[in-house]
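Retro notes
What went well: the complex prediction finally ran end to end.
Inputs used:
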Amino acid sequence: DTGVSQNPRHKITKRGQNVTFRCDPISEHNRLYWYRQTLGQGPEFLTYFQNEAQLEKSRLLSDRFSAERPKGSFSTLEIQRTEQGDSAMYLCASSLGGTANSPLHFGNGTRLTVT
Amino acid sequence: EDKVVQSPLSLVVHEGDTVTLNCSYEVTNFRSLLWYKQEKKAPTFLFMLTSSGIEKKSGRLSSILDKKELFSILNITATQTGDSAVYLCAVSPKNSGGSNYKLTFGKGTLLTVNP
């Protein structure tokens, strides 16, 4: 069990640029989640996948954000035309779905700074 | 909308003290309440509680859930400097398969343990 892996660890970008983050979940986990965390706040749910299907998206996920999980394994989160308000830690988590009531396990996150 | 309120928001204690962290919640179709510890990076899983009155214990940490009053507590006895972290409480509703899926987090309690 190598845990949830996220890349890059840090990303600094200029306003208006596009960025893409990658998440590799724990290998046997079929559910994958994206969260955003800002300073002094708990993580906020953005979206989740069961296998390759994106089953729910938060209203926090504007149309500049898109997430994919093309083969039901790794996932990418893309932010287009970044804004300073997008600066945050982006956390990925995974869990077992179905009848297993497993907890979510988080990666170390990608810290995005938009200048 | 699901909601989690944690108290206190911050706490400073001396090594050896015992602390109690509080979490109250509102969730539609409750499935689980989870506690996480967050240092500089990933929230790490501590406990998952699904039934009232059953204490979960791991070393010096323990937690219990009251589903009637909609709250949980996390106790840490004989605190050590390594316990310094943000402790996050989260709740999950039940999805159609009956398992956890997305989590709603509180803002966390920042615990500082001084030597």
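What we learned: The CA atoms of residues 46 and 110 of chain A lie 14 Å apart.
What to try next: split runs per interface for comparison.
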